[in-house]
Amino acid sequence: MKFGKNRLTVSKEKQLEKRHYNIVIGLMISFVTYYFLFEPNLIGHDSRYTIYVFLLPTLLGLLTLAVYRRRFLTHKFTTNKGFRLWTFMTVLYLVQGIVFSYLSFGQVAKISWDILNDKTAKQNIEEVFDCQVTRFWNGKRSSIDFLFNDRHNKFDVQYETIKDYINKNPDDYYLTITARKGLWNYYLVERWDIKNKKTSGQ
């Protein structure tokens, strides 16, 4: 009887793990889709974003997941002994929990913030900023690095966008960025252009 009960428990756990796996795959697809197709182009920095949009939602998701899986975690830690094994399981489940929390709670918070930020920015006038280029980067993901309000920012771009600048001195170039003020210290970018200081008279 006990053996049959244990086998049933293992079977239910495997079904639950499969369901969780499918949920994670769905969340990852949603994350990638949003990142490449819908994520707004923003510049700026504010510690409140890190706290309220990234850290708190992720921690809330981690706590919720721990409560939801408390029986599973309790069983794992009580039936497996040894400091090394406990350390391994702690790191493993913590990393899994953080990833799941960010892809679920974190992404809901981020998308909600992006929508509110977009609405706020659309109500404000366009502003133009001249930003010093610090690097034209051609790697796995090409980018233009620049300074905005004395902080490093970057635009991810296609290689064709910067191929003529790869071997140029970035100190000779700046970006003219047209943007609208959004929430906190973030700006929603409308458009930008690379300009040469010598030819533009700067």
From TrEMBL:
<feature type="transmembrane region" description="Helical">
    <location>
        <begin position="21"/>
        <end position="37"/>
    </location>
</feature>
<keyword id="KW-0812">Transmembrane</keyword>
<feature type="transmembrane region" description="Helical">
    <location>
        <begin position="49"/>
        <end position="68"/>
    </location>
</feature>
<keyword id="KW-1133">Transmembrane helix</keyword>
<protein>
    <submittedName>
        <fullName>Uncharacterized protein</fullName>
    </submittedName>
</protein>
<feature type="transmembrane region" description="Helical">
    <location>
        <begin position="83"/>
        <end position="105"/>
    </location>
</feature>
<keyword id="KW-0472">Membrane</keyword>
